[in-house]
C-alpha cells in the first residue's frame, strides 16, 4: 500500500500529537501507523506518522503547502516522503561479499523496497556476481598515492545515477569528506563492534587472543570522523573459548549482514531521525 511518511522533531509541548492528527484527519487522512517519543533530557519530541496516501485528496506538494502553517506554529522540523518513490541505493564493496550478496538477495526478493542503480568497487572480484543481477558494476581502483581521482570518479557516478543513499557493504576504504558532506545522513556503513579495542587488521584474531565473549556489529551513518557517526542499529552474539578465530569471523559476518539489513530498512522506511549526533529510530 502506498503511504506518506511524516517525520517530526520539535521542542516538547502539550498537544503536538493532537494538533498533527487533527490536521491529517481534517483532510480525510487515514493514519496507519503512529510512533512518538519524548526525551526528558533534551526536551525534544519525535514523531512518525504513516498515512494512507489514497485517503488524502491531494499529493505531497499540496500537503507541504497546507501543513507549513502548523509547522511554524509548533516549531516543527519535519519531512514527508512517498513510499511509492523508492530510494535509489548505490552499494559500495571491496572483496568480501557477505553483506553485498545479502542485500542483493533481499532486494530481488522484494524484502527491501529500493532501487539499485549501480555497484561500485575498488576491486573487480565481484563483477560477474553483480552483473548476473542485471546491475551495472563499476571498478574504481583507489591509488594510495592519488585517492582524489578515484573519489571524484565515484562522486560523478553517484550523481550520474541520481543516487539517494549510499551503503558501504564492507567497502574497505575511507570515505572522503566531500562524499560525507553530499550524503550527510544518507551514507551507511557496517563494521564489527570491537572498535576501538581491536582496530586495524584481523580484529577477530585480536579478539580471540583476548578471550572476548561477545561478537557484534554496528550500522551507522558515515561522518568525517572515522567510525564515529550516528548509530542506527547494533547487535551481538555470544562466543566462547571453544570458538576459533575462523568461527568468530563466520559468526561476525552473520551479525554484520543482519544488522546492516535492519539498519538500511529503518532508513528506507524513514524511521530514523538524526538529532545532534544521535539517532531516534521509530520502529
SSE topology:
Layout: E1 3-11, H1 16-26, E2 31-39, E3 44-52, H2 60-74, E4 77-82, E5 87-93, H3 98-108, E6 114-115, E7 119-121, H4 127-132, E8 137-139, H5 147-160, E9 165-168, H6 177-182, E10 187-192, H7 203-210, E11 214-221, E12 231-238, H8 245-268, E13 272-275, E14 278-281
Parallel strand pairs: 5-6, 5-7, 5-9, 7-8, 9-10
Antiparallel strand pairs: 1-3, 1-4, 2-3, 10-11, 11-12, 13-14
Helix pairs in contact: 3-8, 7-8
> Would you tell me the overall average pLDDT?
95
Stretches where pLDDT falls below 50 for ≥5 residues? none
SSE succession: EHEEHEEHEEHEHEHEHEEHEE
C-alpha-based Rg, rounded: 21 Å
User: How would a crystallographer describe the biggest sheet?
Assistant: 8 strands, mixed
Helix content: 25-40%
Identify the overall geometry. globular
Strand percentage lies at: 25-35%
Structural class category: alpha/beta
For the termini, the CA-CA separation is 18 Å
Structure notes:
The chain is α/β, with parallel strands linked by helices. The protein has 8 helices and 14 strands. The strands form 3 sheets. Strands 5, 6, 7, 8, 9, 10, 11 and 12 form an 8-stranded mixed beta sheet that branches. A 4-stranded antiparallel beta sheet has the order 2-3-1-4, with helices on one face. A two-stranded antiparallel sheet has the order 13-14. The longest helix is centred in the C-terminal third of the chain and has 24 residues, at 245-268. The chain is globular and about 60 Å long. It starts with a strand and ends with a strand.
